[in-house]
Every structure is written in structure tokens, then in C-alpha cells.
Design a protein that fits this description.
six-stranded mixed sheet; Diaminopimelate Epimerase, Chain A, domain 1; alpha/beta; globular; TIM Barrel; 27% helix
């Protein structure tokens, strides 16, 4: 070592995920990179007069954990108002809304489970009697649909059905009256534009608090599946150290023109300390519960037979153009037809596509599609906590819509790993909680419709948030392992995340979180 390190972590059980040296007890950091990996006896030789030494007293140090699918900036708006995630039925929903505070006269809520409607169609008539005429906008948990009251629709000037370039819908009854159910982004945006919006100062404060809270669970990075807010993130990054590394993938939506595609290409590489634009996000479908997942065969309501892109071939053309420009793509694909179409498009790209494209969610997929991920070098990015929105007995909205056969192919983490795929793991916050310990735990012990399926091993789950997340982002040579020259992103747990039982891991204390060589979080 030519110069003294800035930071040394010692007295640890280090699991490096580096085949060349799987275990160690001490790690040295300099200029944001791993400078040395060794044993406690090496610390005396490494240490300089200005070196900070953190004694971990037997804590388990692993590569910094990464959420492979999150929305920490866009989610600030999504997770605004009253938290409805604990609501399980209509009576509870009415009670929550009756007691909800107002934001500039509006009732705004988020996290509402489709199952709370007890099988009834989503309709404003179910809740308007407890709101006293106040406009209300309630986001359903999936982030792809919402319920707006009549006053909210009136404020937005929505009086009937609309036509959109993407697969979206203002749901109307037989008489043409909007029911308040808004399906997919374009429909929701009609009302979102009329809603009160937090100030820049408030959003900045919430972002700093959120990223700090994420780091306290062991996270050192996130693959952000939206454009975020460059002004906001850039400002925070200039004034302080971002607790997480953020990799943004702005959206490419149906109807985009040549100029729009060129703008997406030009945006690649923009960023600052601990943040960068790297990739583009597509949607091939919506959600099962919203009836917008693209399925090979219709769901029980006759829905799900259409793609989010009205012309799926236009999606393929956009991917090909971005691929030719060297841009990575990530495509939201929940239904089996959506997953198949994305894989078909990547297969048509020819040589050079391996490792540059990924599929997000993959909630149901037949056997025949699984080996294609490894064959094509397409990463599978999955969110184990989403399984908690389903039920093992099949009585939830997701399972009912798909039917037993397709619900039996839920969240095939184990099968994709067995097929040789790169499987990166995330939370999709604010759709599910950002606590990465829960991501690891539910990857090992899936819930609901996936509970009968075998989960990942402890090591495979850890890899999903470290080495496999790095591979999915094209960062395998710089991240995902504790090795000299790799980024100094590190997480220390009180328990071994590989051997500890899943339920204990979900609550294990986080001793230290280090991002880019900076100690971001210190546990008690």
C-alpha cells in the first residue's frame, strides 16, 4: 500500500464474494476504493496518522447492498399523504379517509391494496360519503392506478373517457360517467397536475431523510427506474454526500419521436458524485391487479390481452435504436406475454446484447421462458416483497385474476437462478418498503402465492443485492465484491446474512453502512 488509508474496518467477519479471497477480517479504504483486504494483524502496517479505524467487534461485513429497483425521488410524490397500506377492507378505508388530514384542502393517500375493495370494482361512490365533498386522490399500492373522487376529477377537468398514446384509461360506467378509477400513468397524470405539490424545500428535506433511512437498513445504492429530479439530486450531492449511489433510468414511453430518443441517448452519463444517468426504462405492460399486465390469455375479467405500447413493434424499434447507441435498457414486464416479447426483441438484436438489457418484475412466466434469460444474457430484476400482496389460498386479486395455473408460476426466483440467470433483487419502493433486510428475507422465504415455491439460499439472496445487482448494471468489474480496486461500498450486520434464519435477518441490527468510503450510518 503506497499511502495510508482513509478508513479501516477491523474485527469483522468479512464475506467478500471475491473468489480469489472469499473471507477476511479487515478492509482498508482510500479515496473511495478498497485499498486492501486482509487480516486484523495487517492493520498496524496499514494505519496512518489520519486513518479512521472502525472496530466491528465480530460484525459481518459484506459488499454494500443495492436495491436493484427503486424510486427514491419520484416516490417522494407517490408516498404523500395518509398511508393506506394497512387498510384491509372498505370499512377500514372509510375510517382512514374520514380521519385523514387535508393537504391544501385535498385528501391524498397512497399504498392502498386492491384487496381492500373486497372484490368490488374500484369506484369513487364507495368512499365519497365520508369525505365531505373534499377532492381526494388515492394511489393504489401498485403505482399504476388510483381512485379520484368527483371533486378531484372536476378540479382536473376530467368529465369522461380520454384517448392516450399509451395503454391508459379513465374508467367510465355504462353511462359514460367516470368512476374515478384511473388506470396507468397518463390517466393518473390528468389529476396529478391539479393536485397540491410539496415545495422544493420540503422535497429536499424528505429526500435527505429518506436516503439516510435507507442507508440505515444497509443500503448503499439503488437502481432508480425513473428520471428522478436532476436539479434536486444534484443540489443535494453538491452540498453533502449522497447516502446512496443512485443510477437513474429515464422513461421511454409510447409515442416518442426521433428527437426524444436522441435526448435519451444524450442524457447518458450525466450526473455528479454518487449519481448518474445510466440506462432507459420501458413499460411493456402494467399490473395484474389493474388488468393491464400483458398476458398470453385473458384474465378472469377478460382483460390483459394488450400491451402497454399499443404497437409493440414500436417498442422493439426504440430498443434497437438505443441498443445501437450503447444504451442499457430495463423493461417493466409482469405478464407472460410481456416477458416473452421483451426476450424476443433482445434476441433480435444480435451479438453484443448480452449483459446490457434487463426485465423488471416477471411476476408470472412459464417454463419455456426461463432458460432464455441466461441464453440471451438478460438480467431478471425481481422484487420479493411484492409476494406479500398475495395470499397463499389464492383469494387475493392477483391470484384470482390469473387463475391457479399462472398463479402457480409466481415470482420464480429459484427457477431463474437454477436456469443460470442473473437475478437482481429490489423493493420497488414505495410499492414495498425499502428495508433491504426484508428484501433478503423474502427472497429466501417468499410469501403469499409464491410461498409454496422454494426461495433462494442465503448466499444467492445476498448476491441478488450485491454481485448480481452489479452485473445487472454492467458494474461487475467495479462493484458487488470486496476486492482491491472495487468501490468502497460496504454493509456490516450483527448477524451473518447468509446463515441467519430469514426472520431474524429481517430485524438484525445494521452496524455500519459505508458508501464511497464515507461512513454513512453507525448503529448502536
Amino acid at each position: 500500500m503506497t499511502a495510508a488509508p482513509d478508513l479501516i474496518l477491523t474485527g469483522a467477519e468479512v464475506r467478500t464474494l471475491d473468489p480469489g479471497r472469499p473471507y477476511a477480517t479487515a478492509v482498508a479504504v482510500r479515496d473511495g476504493l478498497i485499498a486492501a483486504v486482509g487480516e486484523d494483524r495487517d492493520v498496524r502496517d496499514w494505519r496512518g496518522p489520519g486513518t479512521e479505524v472502525v472496530a466491528l467487534a465480530g460484525a459481518h461485513l459484506v459488499p454494500g447492498l443495492v436495491d436493484a429497483h427503486s424510486h427514491p425521488v419520484w416516490g417522494l410524490d407517490m408516498a404523500t399523504g395518509v398511508d393506506l397500506s394497512g387498510v384491509t377492507g372498505l370499512a377500514g378505508l372509510k375510517a382512514a379517509l374520514a380521519g385523514a388530514g387535508r393537504i391544501d384542502g385535498w385528501v391524498i393517500g397512497f399504498g392502498l391494496d386492491h384487496n381492500a375493495f373486497e372484490g368490488r370494482p374500484v369506484d369513487r361512490a364507495l368512499v365519497e360519503d365520508v369525505l365531505g365533498g373534499a377532492p381526494a386522490f388515492l394511489r393504489l399500492y401498485d403505482g399504476h392506478s388510483a381512485l379520484a373522487t368527483g371533486a378531484a376529477l372536476a378540479a382536473a377537468g376530467v368529465t369522461g373517457a380520454r384517448d392516450f398514446e399509451q395503454r391508459s384509461e379513465v374508467v367510465c360506467d355504462a353511462g359514460g360517467r367516470p368512476t374515478g378509477h384511473l388506470v396507468e400513468h397518463a390517466a393518473m397524470q390528468l389529476v396529478e397536475r391539479a393536485m397540491p405539490r410539496p415545495s422544493y424545500t420540503a422535497r429536499r428535506r424528505r429526500l435527505v431523510e429518506l436516503l439516510g433511512a435507507m442507508a440505515a437498513t444497509g443500503l448503499t445504492g439503488a437502481h432508480v427506474m425513473d428520471a428522478g429530479d436532476a436539479e434536486l439530486v444534484g443540489s443535494v450531492a453538491e452540498e453533502t454526500v449522497l447516502p446512496l449511489r443512485l443510477r437513474f433510468a429515464p422513461w421511454c414511453m409510447p409515442g416518442i419521436d426521433e428527437a426524444g430518443l436522441k435526448e435519451l441517448v444524450a442524457a447518458q452519463g450525466r450526473g455528479g458524485r454518487h449519481w448518474v444517468v445510466d440506462g432507459v426504462k420501458f413499460f411493456m405492460d402494467g399490473t395484474v391487479e389493474g388488468g393491464t399486465a400483458w398476458l398470453e390469455h385473458a384474465d378472469c375479467h377478460g382483460q390483459g390481452t394488450e400491451a402497454f405500447w399499443p404497437d409493440p413493434e414500436a417498442y422493439g424499434a426504440a430498443v434497437r435504436q438505443l441498443h445501437a447507441a450503447g444504451v442499457r435498457t430495463a423493461t417493466h414486464a409482469i405478464g407472460d406475454a410481456a416477458v416473452r416479447h421483451v426476450l424476443d426483441v433482445v434476441a433480435g438484436l444480435g451479438p453484443g446484447g448480452a449483459g446490457r438489457h434487463r426485465v423488471e418484475h416477471i411476476e408470472t412466466a412459464p417454463d419455456a421462458l426461463l432458460p432464455r434469460f441466461a441464453e440471451l444474457g438478460v438480467a431478471a430484476s425481481m422484487q420479493p416483497p411484492h409476494t406479500a400482496y398475495t395470499r397463499a389460498d389464492g383469494t387475493d386479486e392477483w391470484s384470482r385474476r390469473l387463475g391457479a395455473g399462472r398463479a402457480g408460476h409466481a415470482w420464480r426466483l429459484r427457477d431463474l437462478r437454477d436456469a443460470g440467470a442473473t437475478v437482481a433483487l429490489g423493493s420497488d419502493w414505495p410499492i414495498a418498503h425499502y428495508d433491504v433486510r426484508t428484501v433478503l428475507a423474502t427472497a429466501r422465504a417468499p410469501r403469499g402465492a409464491a410461498s409454496a415455491r422454494a426461495g433462494l439460499t442465503g448466499l444467492e439472496a445476498l448476491e441478488g443485492c450485491t454481485s448480481h445487482a452489479a452485473r445487472a448494471a454492467g458494474e461487475a468489474e467495479t462493484a458487488g465484491r470486496i476486492a482491491v480496486g472495487h468501490r468502497a461500498d460496504l454493509t456490516a450486520f450483527a448477524l451473518d446474512p447468509v446463515r441467519a434464519p430469514a426472520d431474524e435477518l429481517a430485524e438484525t441490527p445494521v452496524r455500519v453502512t459505508v458508501t464511497g468510503g464515507h461512513v454513512i450510518h453507525r448503529g448502536e
